[in-house]
């Protein structure tokens, strides 16, 4: 994953979970060609870029409790 400036991501359609309560602590996601962009709603200037397979593996690990966070 890498980070990049927000200026190149303004045109993207950012989405967040319908479970979000709007308190500025949400992860937002946007599709950008063959890449996936992620950002925190209270820090939209920092954007992570990855591919769908890596994001899917991360989510599977989180659901399985394999992450030590």
Set down the secondary structure blueprint:
Blueprint: E1 2-4, E2 15-16, E3 27-32, E4 35-40, E5 43-50, H1 52-63
Antiparallel strand pairs: 1-5, 2-3, 3-4, 4-5
Q: How would you sum up this structure, described in words?
A:
- The chain is an alpha+beta fold and 69 residues long.
- Helices cover 17% and strands 36% of the residues.
- It contains 1 helix and 5 strands.
- The protein starts with a strand and ends in a 6-residue tail after the last helix.
- This is DUF397 domain-containing protein.
Order of strands across the biggest sheet? Answer: 1-5-4-3-2
User: How many DSSP E strands?
Assistant: 5
Shape: globular
The SS-based structural class is alpha+beta
Whole-number tally of structural domains: 1
Amount of helix: 10-25%
Q: Could you name the ranges where pLDDT drops below 50 across 5 or more consecutive residues?
A: 3-7
Query: How do the SSEs run, as a string of H and E?
Result: EEEEEH
- β-strand percent reads 35-45%
Radius of gyration based on Cα positions: 12 Å
Please count the helical segments.
Answer: 1
Q: What profile does the largest beta sheet have?
A: 5 strands, antiparallel
Distance between the termini: 18 Å
Mean pLDDT: 84
List keywords for this structure.
69 residues; alpha+beta; 5-stranded antiparallel beta sheet; 5 strands; 17% helix; 36% strand; disordered N terminus; DUF397; DUF397 domain-containing protein
Concise structural overview:
The protein is an alpha+beta fold and 69 residues long.
């Amino acid at each position: 994953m890498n980070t990049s400036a927000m200026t190149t991501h303004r045109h993207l359609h950012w989405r967040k979970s319908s479970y979000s309560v709007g308190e500025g602590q949400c992860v937002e996601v946007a599709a950008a060609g063959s890449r996936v962009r992620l950002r925190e709603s209270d820090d939209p200037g920092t954007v992570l870029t990855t591919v769908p397979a890596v994001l899917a593996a991360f989510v599977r690990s989180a659901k399985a409790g394999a992450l030590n966070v």
